[in-house]
Amino acid sequence: MNTTGSDTPPPSAPVQPTERTLHGETVVDDFGWMRDHADPRLRAYLVAERDYFDRYAEGLDPLVGELVAEAARRTAAGRSFSWRIGHHEYTTRPPDEGGRYTRYLRRDVRGTAEPEVVLDLGELARGHDFTRIGVFEPSPDGRLLAYSVDHVGYESYELRFRDLATGTDLARTRQETYYTGVWDASSSKFCYVVHDAAMRPYRVLAHDLTADPGAPDAVLWDERDEHFTTTVRATRTRDWLVVTNQSRTTTEELLLPAGDLTAPPRPVMPRRHGQVYFADHQRTAGQDRLVALVAEGREERRLVGLPLAELESQRWQEILPRDPDTAWQRLDVFAAGLLLSGYRRGTTVFTLLGPDGGTRDITPDSPGGCLVFEGRRDALRVQMDQRTHYEADEIELAEHTLCAPPRHHRLSLRTGAHELLPPAAVTGFDPARFRTTKVFAGSADGTVVPVTLAHRADVRPDGANPAVITCYGAYERPWEPSFSQDVLSLLDRGFVYAIAHVRGGGELGRRGWFDGSMAATPASFHDLVAVRDHLVATGWAHPAGVVASGSCAGGVAVGQAYTDEPGKWAGIIAEAPAVDLLNAMLDEKLPLTINEWEEWGDPRDPAIHRSMRQYVAYENVSDRPRPPLLVTAYANDPRVLVHEPARWTAALRQADTHGNVILLRTELGDGGHHGPSGAAHVARAAAQLTAFAIDSATRSIRAVPRSRGRVRETPA
Fold first, then answer.
1. Distance CA 204, CA 255 (A)
2. Beta-carbon neighbour count of residue 81 at 10 Å?
3. Which of 96, 630, 668, 709 is the most exposed place for a label (fewest CB within 10 A)?
4. CA angle at residue 506 from 505 to 507, to 5 degrees?
5. What is the rounded distance in angstroms from the CA atom of residue 481 to the CA atom of residue 370?
6. 278 SS3 class
7. pLDDT value at position 374?
């Protein structure tokens, strides 16, 4: 397949063989030199690949233009999120039409003055191709704002302080800061986190704004164990600061009184390998207490509590026992009650626990939807977890689906009653034209894999439908459905879109994570293939028309799908894919490596090495006919370094004698793991991926004799 109409040969990377010898096995690597990002040959190769992709994509330009125009015509009213700190209510205002950047406003609840803008990300982004903020923390007294900004994409933020009375930034900054930060009770000290050379957040510092700007900041915690990352937050009551040290399998949280940062930190629970927990503070009528979600090993989390005055006794009392069918993943503590959220047999569930001990479950109205505590994140991924006030009587839950804007529910924390709020106004499309549901596929070992499915209302399981299946499957992180313009464009064209909730993610609970990590990582790939086969067998997908898509850790599964089962796919989209895990896990100097040994395994272990040699895509490059492949990469990505997808692409090109379509689209400018932030660039980049999927599936189906199927056209 060649959409350019030219015979321009693809680029080839310079070959410089190096050897890796481990556990008695020697492997020759022709592209190990790419790990040196200062080598000018790497930039030259990435530019050549980008030029080759751009020439290829010229053939897709008419379709890309259609997709961008469709997305521009379809609009859904954005929704603000508000929270109160002290005497001020802060609000996020969605971007204006055609924009991408949020504005943050506030108003004094004691008066009637109009809201004032405290931070406009559009202004902050002016002159930059990429802008993202890491923290947004107004001080409790309302005088100051601590915020951090990254204009490169490497997730290393500059921390700034703004005088909210004048709207000007103070002449004091801190470099190489990371996510999370919190004020002390006096509003004079701001606690923040810095990272080391491997991008591991490890140290909590307190900056005193009453001291000289150049004075050294006090060190509140210094985490020496490189398996652990460190964050800092406040309890929802704002009485305590919590320093969290977290590895993939173990948690330790430390309490500091918000009014005295010189006090020695108090462990909530001792650091014990295999124990994970999240704790928060609750004021009760009789006494203060801590409540915590806790799990050990493969067991699901249970809810426990302990009077704060008895913390040193560690005599935690069970509030709710663990349920093997329910994977609690989040705890929100309010004066009016406790709110648990997680997954039950692959579907989101919230459980409200009232003061009387009674419980009430809230589940999505749509079988293909998921519930989210609204305000958890804003549009640019700033953490909003603890913004809703501790004394709140009501909160909002948002129900997300693949093919309609979120539906918002107001939930009473005292009674459990919830009502549907007026829906967002939409233009340019009718959500009633689409359907979403949940189906289940059986994997090879009998595991039942949930699948979120979306399609146009008139599409039937008749075996004629092109399809896109996406997956993630790592870090116990659920891949939640959300409204997407790109998905809607696929559905408009008769595609079926599916999220395969494979093992390794969080939808199947702790057991599902354990069964899809370390040496069991290939289970994610097996589940992906099982979902594809199920959709074909039940008529939802044409056997020649299925495209697989995965990003980051999801690239592990789709990379293995491309390697081991190329005949099952019409195309593969691998966005910043982690396809070189073995080499990454051998390099302790790379970002995140040591912390991720408990996710993927340490290949210095012979068993892990054998496992990785079998499934890691870069370790298994071979020459055979394969479906079209589109790989994306980002020059400043700190999570999947650009050389990983580049090396895979180079090796595939070197091995190929079949004329396989192999494309590498690298974003060469600013922009990290999630790409550039400019609205026009984002829209076009997303449309290119969608166009590639449409083109690949359509061509593959058309290549099949007509008696075996047809392409469903969009009705006029």
1. 13
2. 21
3. 96
4. 105
5. 7
6. strand
7. 62
Q: Is 229 helix (H, G, I), strand (E, B) or coil?
A: strand
CA 630 – CA 1 distance, rounded (Å):
13
> What are the strands, taking DSSP E only, across 264-337?
266-267, 275-283, 288-296, 302-307, 317-320, 326-333
Strand, coil or helix: what is 150?
strand
The predicted model gives 329-351 an average pLDDT of 93
pLDDT recorded at residue 457:
97
By the 8 A CB rule, do 379 and 94 touch? yes
Write out the E strands in 164-287: 168-183, 189-195, 201-208, 218-222, 229-234, 240-246, 251-257, 266-267, 275-283
Whether 146 contacts 159, CB under 8 Å: yes
β-pairing verdict for 25-29 and 75-76: unpaired
- Mean pLDDT is lowest, of 74-78, 170-174, 328-332, 488-492, for 74-78
Taking CA atoms, 663 is separated from 50, 615, 646, 650, in Å, by: 8, 21, 10, 10
DSSP one-letter string for 52-70: HHHHHHGGGHHHHHHHHHH
CA neighbor of 451 nearest in space, from 467, 432, 430, 464: 467
| Bridge partner list, 292 | 279, 304
Q: Counting every residue, how long is the chain? A: 716
* Cα separation values, 442 from 124, 326, 439, 501, Å: 49, 20, 10, 12
Is residue 243 within 8 A of residue 265, CB to CB? The reply is yes
Instruction: Give the pLDDT mean for 490-509.
Output: 97
Rg (CA), the chain: 26
Q: What is the pLDDT of residue 81?
A: 79
Which among 46, 3, 13 has a CA at the least distance from the CA of 636? Answer: 46
Instruction: Give one DSSP letter per residue of 399-456, joined into a string.
Output: EE-SSSPPEEEEEETTT--EEEPPPPPEES--GGGEEEEEEEEE-TTS-EEEEEEEEE
**Contact of 339 with 347, CB cutoff 8 Å:** no
Tell me the pLDDT tens digit for each residue of 428-484: 999 999 999 999 999 999 999 999 999 999 999 999 999 999 999 999 999 999 999
CA 538 to chain centre: 30
Token digits of residue 683:
């829209």
Task: Give the amino acid at 226.
Answer: E
